[in-house]
Design a protein that fits this description.
- The protein has 558 residues and is α+β, with helices and mostly antiparallel strands.
- It has nine helices and 28 strands.
- The structure holds a DNA duplex (22 and 22 nucleotides).
DNA sequence: TCACCTCACACCTTTGAATAGG
DNA sequence: ACCTATTCAAAGGTGTGAGGTG
């Protein structure tokens, strides 16, 4: 591939060619070239399920980002045993005496790296039906909490701040791509981020989206690193690469590395293919990465669906929404009947995954889905699930990401970590993905640049596990990710140099893990609020990404 | 009043440990 | 002992709709 701008087949609007970078490049990025990075010249990326995406795009894709949902993460990502708190439907809240103090607020604050804990709720404490008891302080302590005065010598009970469970949502459709043209033995890192399309806030009025004002301050930028990363070109090319477990939230306090978006704003996912070093040190070659954009994956972030057509499409195609499909006397049917104007789209004939035999799935996918059934060659003995996937990285582990200014005035970012690189598993999508695939593909709009300072140099960052790995940026201070992040100035450079901040390692979901659960790491600092015309109206991503360079160093809280 | 958000809910799929059988 | 297939309860994902909030 010669670096030409390719148009997405799903695009409905003309996309200008990428402008001359020398005119649009960021300050301090003068040394980049127009040359396609070596090893990425021939990369082609095809969007799977393009037909489905186009249907959504035509109707105006919406993605739920509200806190509502059933996937619950907890503000305390680990306990001393490396276990996560119980979750989801097993989670209950039990009352404690109102006057019981919150004895370890300071300790919890320190552990979580949060300077300001949310308001305490004196009435609530998490309890586990399994444990048959309220959580003890040791359940949540990354390190021993100060002993509490207990007259009877019993284990002290820790009051948990009333941080709500963090509800998150996946994207649907999820982004799946087929990649070709990679160097077979070269290792690559697949990264996805979601950037605002413009600086507007929208409203849905009279069955259409219209600008409702200026955009709200951008959420802190985060990126989703495919859990297979780094992997060889052969690995990436032999399977469809899925970003199924990319999750969205509007929770400003999100501490789990989920991508945070503003409701009623328009966003564009982007795929970055970053060339890593050939060893297991996860060292990125500074200049080798390319970005791919599929314009039909643009979506509006909403807390509840605005367009009934989108609702219907989701119901029709998402297996988890099967219960709302028409036909029988389902809730959806009842709802549909109650809604006079509800446009009922004739039901298609989706093949139900549940009707397919269980067993070994197709392994021609690289998903962020679980690994147990996606790794035929790996039994569960190879991928022991932690209690629930939390704290899979020793607390003593650290990942360092440092920012240095090079001679050209650009920021160079680096990561470092100290965990082992486990075997690279085979991966596969769940059946739903294969079933949903309509075999249609779209070649992305390609934006490529070779700025050595844009993406982090992940020196020595070994894949802590094969699960979701997120990179979350930080504010311009030393606050933890667990602290309320500060909105980035859309036009600021985003970060100061050589700063440290704490990084929680956490996870969600039930995935098998090799070396831990999902790990969420601070990100390189992508612009969350792009400059005018970001990607969607011709301004190259080069311009946007390059504006935010530099990453602070980070460290696991000790 | 309105737009937007939250949350509990029912329904469904997926997961993965346990078990059975070869 | 090992492997594969099956079972099933738990976990997780979905949109709904009433109610809350500003």
């Amino acid at each position: 591939m010669s670096g030409e701008l390719k148009e997405s087949a799903g695009s409905e609007r003309p996309r200008p060619r990428e402008p001359d970078r020398k005119d649009d490049g960021p300050p301090g990025a003068d040394d980049r070239t127009d040359a396609v990075p070596e090893g990425l010249e021939d990369v082609k990326v095809e969007l799977q399920d393009a037909g489905l995406w186009q249907r959504f795009h035509k109707a105006g894709t919406e993605m739920i980002i509200t806190k509502a949902g059933r996937s619950i993460c907890y503000p305390f990502p680990f306990n001393v045993r490396g276990e996560e708190p119980p979750r989801t439907r097993d989670t209950q809240f039990t009352s404690l005496p109102k006057n019981e103090c919150s004895p370890n607020r300071d300790a919890l604050s320190r552990i979580c790296g949060v300077s300001q804990l949310p308001t305490w709720n004196q009435d609530l404490n998490w309890a586990s039906p399994r444990l048959k008891r309220p959580f003890l302080q040791t359940d949540f302590a990354a390190q021993p909490l100060p002993a509490l005065p207990q007259a009877d010598g019993s284990s002290p009970t820790v009051k948990i701040p009333s941080m709500q469970p963090v509800y998150i949502r996946r994207m649907f459709p999820s982004i799946k791509v087929k990649v070709t043209g990679l160097q077979p033995k070269t290792k690559y890192i697949f990264v996805m981020d979601i950037v605002a399309v413009d600086s507007h806030r929208y409203k849905f009025n009279e069955s259409k989206w219209s600008v409702a004002g200026k955009a709200e301050p951008a959420m802190p930028g985060r990126v989703f690193v495919h859990p297979d990363s780094p992997a060889t070109g052969t690995h990436w090319m032999k399977q469809v690469v899925c970003f199924q477990k990319l999750k969205l939230t509007n929770n400003y306090m999100d501490t789990f590395g989920h991508i945070m978006l503003n409701s009623m704003h328009k966003y564009q996912p982007r795929l970055h293919i970053v060339q890593a070093s050939e060893n297991n040190k996860f060292e990125l070659k500074k200049t080798c990465f390319r970005t791919f954009v599929f314009h039909e994956t643009e979506f509006m972030a909403v807390t509840s669906y605005q367009n009934h057509q989108i609702t219907q499409l989701k119901i029709e195609h998402n297996p988890f929404a099967k219960g709302f499909r028409g036909g029988d006397d389902t809730e959806f049917s009842r709802s549909a009947r109650k809604s006079i104007n509800y446009p009922v789209i004739p039901r298609s004939n989706p093949v139900q995954a549940s009707l397919l035999p269980r067993g070994r799935p197709n392994n021609n996918y690289a998903c962020s889905s679980n690994m147990a059934d996606t790794c035929p060659s790996l039994s569960s003995n190879h991928y022991q699930q932690t209690t629930a996937g939390y704290n899979t990285v020793p607390l003593g582990s650290s990942i360092q990401m440092t920012t240095q200014e090079n001679s050209g005035g650009c920021m160079q970012n680096s990561f470092s970590g100290n965990t082992d690189l486990g075997p690279l598993p085979k991966r596969a999508c769940r059946e739903e993905d294969r079933l949903l695939s309509d075999n249609s593909v779209t070649t992305s709009t390609l934006t490529t640049w070779s700025n050595p300072q844009i993406l982090p140099n992940m020196e020595n960052l070994q894949p802590l596990n094969r699960e979701t790995c997120m990179f979350a940026n930080s504010a311009n201070d030393n606050t933890s990710l667990l602290a309320a992040p500060q909105p980035l100035d859309p036009l600021s450079t985003g970060f100061n140099n050589n700063q440290n901040f704490s990084v929680p390692f956490s996870s969600s979901g039930t995935g098998f893990v090799s070396n831990g659960g999902m790990n969420f790491l601070p990100s390189c600092s992508y612009a969350q609020m792009p400059q005018q015309g970001l990607g969607m109206n011709g301004t190259p991503f080069l311009h946007e990404v390059s504006r935010n360079v530099g990453c602070p160093s980070m460290q696991i809280p000790q």
